[in-house]
Design a protein that fits this description.
- 44% of the residues lie in helices and 9% in strands.
- Strands 1-7-6-5-2-3-4 form a seven-stranded mixed sheet, with helices on both faces.
- The two termini are 30 Å apart.
- The protein is globular.
- By secondary structure, the protein is α/β, with parallel strands linked by helices.
- It contains 16 helices and seven strands.
- α1 (15-34) runs antiparallel to α2 and α11 crosses α12.
- β2, α10 (210-223) and β3 form a beta-alpha-beta unit.
Length: 395
């Protein structure tokens, strides 16, 4: 089986190094400014930042509810420098430790308080979301095929609205976005060919990304392209803006509160779909694990098994889907995702080093630009692994 080097964060100037030495310090400042944490919590967060940049990996304390699981996941890593651990593992552990430092899981004042909620709430209540909700009024006038195309594109490019990515100021700096791979015909034909399609959606970010995800789900259900949709959310706050069940409900409320407009109608349909069971929200502890989906437990795999299609949203889910390694960009997407228990579609803007399944001429054209195209957030892809390859390459 082909392999590639595991991504580490030990090379100064690399994307992974920048996450720990540039993004996380800014994030820590924002978290401590956003909520009035006390001296204990503030000191613990500051100590985590120092440890994760200059120290060694320390295990969770014995009082942590999942300390045994993390010791198993981190076997052989504790006591070593953070940058010697796989980047995916270390980054995930940073967020788990941040929740521990802020008291999210401990009985007390801060139990259950999302440290990223102020950022999520501000975005959801902001003028950009107001404008996007108003734009939904144009949907009924679009032909069905055009509406499907617009909604899939919105769900894809909504992945640029990643609060963690925006911390470094990159999200708005790039040129107009462009697709580097587009397997959308295979996505639509696979759903259309099924007599009773069941679609799973692995959510990524809350707010401005989750909003078009929910609108796409409504379209799948109302058009008959899905008889049932299962939306998977994170079981706890993760990677700044990843969507929890609470975030799904908050976004649904934002839709339903646009009285007399298309957003309200969409929100009402989604609410009733949840009542009837045609739309279900699920979660699983492994969705916050530091491991690739190749290692998912049997009970989670069983939830995806038999789905007509699983739509995997976002950059982190893509890293977990194909493996967080320095693959050649032209290596086979089908080979990387063949382990997944159902046909799978990845909707993702490129915000980390990992990418596979691109055509050679496209890679050569991107490399010739001289820009950091893998991490800029400028480019996106729709990649599908189902039964037969259909590719349209727009570049």
């Amino acid at each position: 089986m082909p392999t590639a080097p595991t991504i580490l964060s030990n090379t100064p100037g690399s994307f992974a190094w920048g996450v720990f030495h540039e993004r996380h310090p800014k994030l820590v400042r924002q978290v401590l400014d956003a909520l009035p944490y006390g001296p204990v919590e503030r000191a613990a967060v500051e100590e985590l930042l120092v440890e994760s940049t200059d120290g060694v990996l320390e295990p969770l304390g014995t009082s942590a509810h999942d300390q045994r699981q993390w010791r198993e996941w981190g076997e052989g890593l504790f006591g070593r420098p953070w940058d010697e651990a796989p980047f995916l593992w270390a980054e995930s552990y940073f967020y788990r430790r941040l929740l521990e430092a802020t008291g999210y899981f401990r009985p007390g004042t801060w139990q259950g308080i999302d440290p990223f909620a102020p950022f999520k709430n501000a975005e959801l209540a902001g003028p950009a979301v107001t404008d996007e909700l108003a734009a939904l009024d144009d949907l009924p006038s679009l032909p069905a095929e055009k509406r499907a195309e617009v909604l899939l594109s919105s769900a894809l490019w909504g992945n640029r609205a990643d609060l963690g990515f925006q911390i470094t100021g990159s999200a708005g700096d790039a040129r107009p976005a462009a697709l580097v791979a587009d397997d959308s015909p295979l996505l639509w034909s696979t759903l259309a060919a099924s007599s009773s399609p069941r679609v799973c959606v692995l959510a990524d970010n809350a707010g401005r990304e989750l909003l078009p995800d929910l609108v796409l789900i409504d379209h799948l259900l109302t058009s008959g392209l899905a008889a049932e949709v299962v939306l998977y959310a994170k079981p706890a706050p993760y990677y700044v803006s990843d969507a929890t069940t609470a975030d799904v409900l908050a976004t649904l409320d934002r839709l339903r509160n646009r009285a007399g407009q298309e957003a309200e109608r969409i929100g009402g349909r989604l609410w009733r779909a949840m009542n009837s069971g045609t739309l279900a929200i699920r979660t699983h502890p492994f969705l916050c694990a530091p491991l690739p989906f190749h290692d998912m437990p049997a009970d989670l795999a069983a939830g995806f098994s038999g789905a007509t299609m699983t739509i995997v949203k976002g950059d982190l889910n893509y890293r977990r889907l194909v493996g967080d390694r320095l693959w050649a960009a032209t290596s086979s997407f089908a080979e990387r995702v063949g382990h997944f228990p159902s046909p799978v579609a990845a909707l993702r803007t490129l915000k980390s080093d990992v990418v596979v399944g691109l055509d050679g001429p496209v890679v050569a054209q991107l490399d010739a630009t001289g820009e950091q195209w893998r991490t800029s957030g400028t480019y996106g892809l729709i990649q599908v692994h189902a039964t037969r390859p259909i590719r349209k390459t727009p570049l």
